Each structure stands twice: as C-alpha cells, then as structure tokens.
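Title: Comparing notes on inverse folding

I've been comparing how different people in this forum approach sequence design from structure. To keep things fair, I'm posting one structure and asking everyone to reply with a full sequence. Here's the target:
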C-alpha cells in the first residue's frame, strides 16, 4: 500500500501542490510554519476524512477559499486506485470519489488506506482519556474484522436511543426493548476487542523489548463493565443510576486498554521520551500485526521525528521502520535530524512557505 501521487488544493498553507512520492521513505524538511505537518495532515485526511489537529474542518481550508481538494493515486501490489476528497466551507459538505465514482463513504477510503500516525500530540494515546485507546483498538478491529464497522455503528445508535429513552422511562420494563439487542452487540464488540488486544500483545511486547528494554510494560484490556457479568444484567441493575445521570454509565463505550510499568500507569512514571517510544512501539506493533495477518502494509506518518528522542533511539526507530517495508513520511526541521535514517529508497522534499520541491530521488 502506497500513495504514489498527491495533488492538494487549498489545504492550510498548501495552495497548489502536486507530488510524486517514493514507495519507501519520503522526507519533508523545512522551517517552522513552512507546511510539513500540513502535508501529513492532508495525507491523514485522505485516509480518515478528518484531521488529527482540528475538529473544525472549515479551519483547515485555506483562508478565503471555498473548499479544499485532495487527489491521490494509491497502489497496492498490482492494483491502482484514484481517490479524491473535497471539503466545502459552505454547509461543510464532503465529497468522496474512488476511481471517479461518487457516492463513496469515508469508511471506503479508510479501508483502502490503513495509516499509522506518530506525532507529538499522539502522546494522548497514553496520557489522554480512554477514548484515545479505544480508537487505537477499534482501528485494528476496523481493518481485521469486516463486521465491526456496522456492529459498532448499530451499537452507538442503540445507545443514543437508550439514553434518550431514559428520560421518559419510569420502570425498567420501558427500556428493556432497547437492551436485548444492545447487550448482544456489546458482548460481540467486547469479544472482538479482547481477542484483538490479546493477539496484539506479542507484537507489543517484542517492540517494547526493543525500544524500552529497561522497562517491563504490562498491557490490559477492560471491557467497560465487570468482566464476569452479563451486560444485560448490568443494564438492568444500573437503571436507576443511569436514569439519574441521564446516560448509560457502563458498557463498551467505556472500554479501556491500559499500560502499566512496575504496576503504575505509564503516564505517571515514564519520561516524555519513553512515552514517545512506547507510543511508537504500539503503532509499529499494530502495523506489523496487520501485515502478518492480512498481508497489508500501513502507511506511517511521522511528524517531528527527532523530538524527544536521543540518537540511539532515533536509530532504533529508523531501523524498525525500514524493516516494516512500508511507505513512510517523515518531517524534520533540518536534514541533519534525519541522519539516522538511511533507507535504500527515499525522496527528500524541501518545504518553504507552502511550496514543496523534490530535492533528490
Ligand atoms: N486555514 C489555513 N489557511 C492558510 N494557512 C494556514 C491555515 N491554517 C494554518 N495555516 C498556516 O499554515 C502554516 C503551516 O503550518 P504547519 O503546521 O504545517 O507548519 P510546520 O512546517 O509543520 O511547522 P513546525 O516545524 O513549526 O511544526 C502555518 O504558517 C500556519 O499558520
Ligand atoms: Mg509541524
């Protein structure tokens, strides 16, 4: 899986960019504010239909422009796709095209483009709330378990309906009707998550051993309610409390995937560099697992490669990325910060005030 060409119009300070990428490493080098993160953000947007920086999409559209447009050419083995995404300022409409055809969904793009992102903000995977770690697990389920996406959408719809119905229900019998299907879906999704977390454990442990040999990292999955209880019973028992609070307090919407070192939460005891390495280990492990199980290579987006890492750790990360045989995009302020990266195949681009030029190939 690789993006061989990307055309960008009016995405942040990238007003007109047309680039051919290497299927191995692509280095983006430039000063602060030149547009390096914006390029990664545009690639991420193409694969997720959202930004990793702003939740308000209209802020991503270049100032005074009515829309931004992204066109990509994707290659995987013998197959090729042309994909397009346009986001309009007016009414916030999104148009997605795959091979020239309208009516595609963001999920179709996301399926075509499995991506892993490593950014300074990405530490929220470890020091942010459980929703970041659920998103991490659900990324895996989305790519490994074809029935997950619709099951998760149905589960969320049922939860929303149940939360609305809580207000008007006087006895549990008024709610019961929502809970039969909800409990079934909750058990299914939790089982998938638990199986995926367990399957990923070996890859996580191996990568942690390489990046953080001085630490013992323990991983545990929590499904969002007592592990020995039937969710239908929990829903019934919690009825009065749920009604009082106004939403369903326990369930798969509260699941977590926790990391501990010496029995303590990693966010409380690891240094920033160690947290970054753990985050890299998790993302690489997830990419490796997809490759082994589905024979699909993720695209890695690495913003500000050098930050927080000493030279040895930069070299370790560089080596592991090379072994992954994936397409990798890496940003840095100077070429010197990339000296630990010596892949056989690479292109270097200079980024200057929104203009991106190929320096070598
Ligand atoms: N909607 C927008 N329209 C036009 N320009 C924008 C918009 N949003 C942000 N910018 C500008 O885009 C520029 C690129 O920012 P970007 O985050 O890509 O820089 P960078 O090269 O990653 O810098 P750093 O090294 O500091 O991380 C910034 O100067 C920013 O002010
Ligand atoms: Mg940046």
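Reply #1:
Here's my take.
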């Amino acid at each position: 899986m690789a993006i061989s060409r990307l055309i960008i119009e009016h995405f942040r300070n990238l007003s007109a960019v047309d680039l051919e990428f290497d299927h191995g490493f692509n280095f983006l080098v430039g000063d602060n504010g030149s547009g390096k993160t914006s390029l990664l953000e545009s690639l991420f947007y193409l694969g997720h239909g959202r930004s990793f920086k702003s939740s308000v999409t209209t802020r991503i559209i270049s100032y005074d422009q009515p829309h931004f447009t992204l066109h990509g050419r994707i290659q995987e083995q013998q197959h090729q796709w042309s994909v397009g995404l346009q986001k309009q300022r007016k009414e916030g409409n999104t148009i997605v095209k795959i091979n020239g055809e309208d009516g595609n969904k963001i999920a179709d793009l996301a399926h075509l483009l499995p991506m892993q992102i490593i950014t300074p903000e990405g530490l929220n995977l470890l020091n942010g709330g459980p929703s970041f770690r659920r998103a991490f697990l659900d990324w895996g389920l989305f790519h490994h378990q074809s029935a997950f996406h619709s099951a998760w959408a149905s589960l969320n719809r049922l939860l929303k309906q149940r939360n609305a119905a809580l207000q008007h229900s006087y006895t549990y019998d008024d709610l019961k009707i929502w809970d039969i299907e909800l409990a079934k879906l909750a058990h299914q999704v939790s089982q998938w998550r638990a199986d995926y977390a367990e399957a990923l454990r070996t890859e996580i442990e191996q990568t942690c051993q390489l990046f953080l040999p001085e630490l013992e990292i323990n991983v545990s999955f929590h499904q969002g309610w007592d592990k020995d209880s039937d969710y239908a019973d929990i829903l019934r028992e919690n009825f009065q409390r749920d009604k009082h609070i106004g939403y369903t307090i326990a369930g798969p919407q509260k699941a977590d995937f926790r990391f501990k070192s010496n029995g303590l939460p990693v966010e409380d005891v690891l240094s920033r560099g160690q947290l970054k390495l753990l985050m890299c280990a998790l993302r690489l492990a997830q990419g490796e697992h997809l490759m082994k199980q589905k024979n699909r290579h993720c695209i890695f987006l690495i913003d500000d490669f050098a930050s927080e890492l000493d030279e040895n750790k930069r070299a370790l990360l560089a080596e592991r990325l090379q072994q992954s045989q994936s397409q990798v995009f890496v940003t840095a302020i100077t070429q010197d910060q990339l000296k630990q990266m010596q892949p056989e195949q690479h292109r270097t681009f200079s980024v200057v005030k929104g203009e991106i030029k190929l320096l070598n190939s």
